């Protein structure tokens, strides 16, 4: 059952649309990735889920409550991208202060804070926050998101700008929280981290969701694994040659096609010299999706401009071309 449901969520700033009608549902216990280039609308989406920004339209329901409802705040832990801390306080004082705000009994809070900081391997808990390193501060911010023991966590760039060791702790800790049954909305630019912790993702661009699903399903929708068959003769399939023209590379999508190439090559008296597989990384897919989405927006803008200035009977053609571009983009969402 979905613990978090978002329906046609939209945020406009003046005439600018930062989030353009997002809809998705997250199942209890899932780690759900929100990825996209700078300015895609990720943080705006997460802040609307956390009740920190009022949507212009649409709804978000977290554990049966709408953002801003005090009961929802009890069930939610939000780690913002930037987390200013009270520099004069120690980590322990700071976290106890927030536990009080959530009415967590002192003894429960102390135990929870101790265990969380222990698991995050935070030393010098009585050092002033202002004197802590960036990584230590990030761990305190994570502990703050957990102080009320929420069911749902929203982590915006939890490990950005940290050293590899601290990053590793935080990514492993996220995985452990998921294993314990927490539902986590996870946004990060490091797609390797996204791939290692997320069950499903959405890819956003220019405020819109341009791809969604499990990483495997998205990979499949974007060509999946390619087989590169190298042979001494050209078996067709638009084979490419190397600089010396003495080897032909045939790129195909499945093993049946590999076998067909083998048959033709052997019939022609040639031989297969190598077969390699290439699976796109999430980064490859991300770059492809972002550039496709940019081309679609440009084509939409061009068509709108042309339709506005040339109302001479050709509008039907242009708009149907534009629609098919949108259909192609939507088919992948
Ligand atoms: N308060 C605001 N007023 C006007 N525009 C805003 C405001 N907040 C965000 N935006 C704009 O909305 C768009 C989406 O911003 P958002 O911070 O959600 O992107 P993001 O995907 O999180 O980017 P990044 O990866 O760089 O953090 C950007 O173009 C941003 O400039």
UniProtKB/TrEMBL annotation:
Region (Disordered) location: 289-333
Domain of life: Archaea
InterPro entries: AAA+_ATPase, ABC_transporter-like_ATP-bd, ABC_transporter-like_CS, ABC_transporter_ATP-binding, DrrA1/2-like_C, P-loop_NTPase
Family label: Belongs to the ABC transporter superfamily.
Keyword terms of this UniProt record: ATP-binding, Nucleotide-binding, Transport
SMART domains, per the entry: AAA (SM00382)
Residue ranges, compositional bias (Basic and acidic residues): 291-333
PROSITE patterns linked: ABC_TRANSPORTER_1, ABC_TRANSPORTER_2
Full protein name: ABC transporter
MF terms (GO), sorted A to Z: ATP binding; ATP hydrolysis activity
Keyword Nucleotide-binding: yes
Presence of the UniProt keyword Transport in the record: yes
Domain ABC transporter: 4-231
């Amino acid at each position: 059952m979905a613990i978090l449901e978002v329906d046609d969520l939209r945020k406009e700033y003046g005439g600018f649309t930062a989030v353009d009608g997002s809809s998705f549902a997250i199942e209890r216990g899932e780690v759900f990735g929100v990825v996209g280039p700078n300015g895609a609308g990720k943080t705006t989406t997460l802040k609307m889920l956390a009740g920190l920004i009022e949507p212009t339209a649409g709804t978000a329901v977290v554990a049966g409550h709408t953002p801003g409802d005090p009961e929802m705040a009890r069930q939610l832990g939000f780690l913002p991208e930037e987390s200013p801390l009270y520099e004069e306080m120690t980590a322990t004082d700071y976290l106890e202060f927030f536990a009080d705000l959530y009415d967590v009994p002192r003894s429960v809070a102390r135990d929870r804070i101790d265990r969380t900081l222990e698991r995050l391997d935070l030393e010098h808990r009585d050092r002033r926050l202002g004197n802590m390193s960036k990584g230590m501060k990030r761990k305190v911010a994570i502990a703050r998101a957990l102080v009320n023991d929420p069911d749902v966590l929203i982590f915006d760039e939890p490990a950005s700008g940290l050293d590899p060791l601290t990053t590793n702790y935080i990514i492993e800790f996220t995985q452990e929280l998921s294993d314990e049954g927490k539902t986590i909305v996870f946004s990060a630019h490091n797609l390797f981290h996204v791939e290692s912790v997320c069950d499903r993702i959405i890819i956003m661009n220019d405020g819109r969701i341009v791809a969604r699903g499990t990483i495997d399903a998205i990979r499949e929708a974007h060509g999946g694994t390619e087989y590169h068959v190298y042979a001494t003769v050209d078996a067709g399939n638009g084979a490419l040659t190397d600089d010396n023209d003495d080897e032909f590379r045939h790129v195909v999508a499945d093993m049946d096609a590999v076998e067909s190439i083998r048959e033709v090559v052997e019939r022609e008296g040639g031989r297969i010299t190598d077969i390699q597989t290439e699976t796109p990384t999430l980064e490859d897919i991300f770059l492809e999706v972002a550039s496709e989405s940019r081309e679609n927006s440009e084509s939409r803008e061009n068509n709108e401009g042309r339709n506005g200035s040339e109302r001479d009977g050709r509008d039907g053609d242009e708009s149907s071309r534009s629609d098919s571009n949108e259909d192609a983009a939507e088919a992948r969402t």
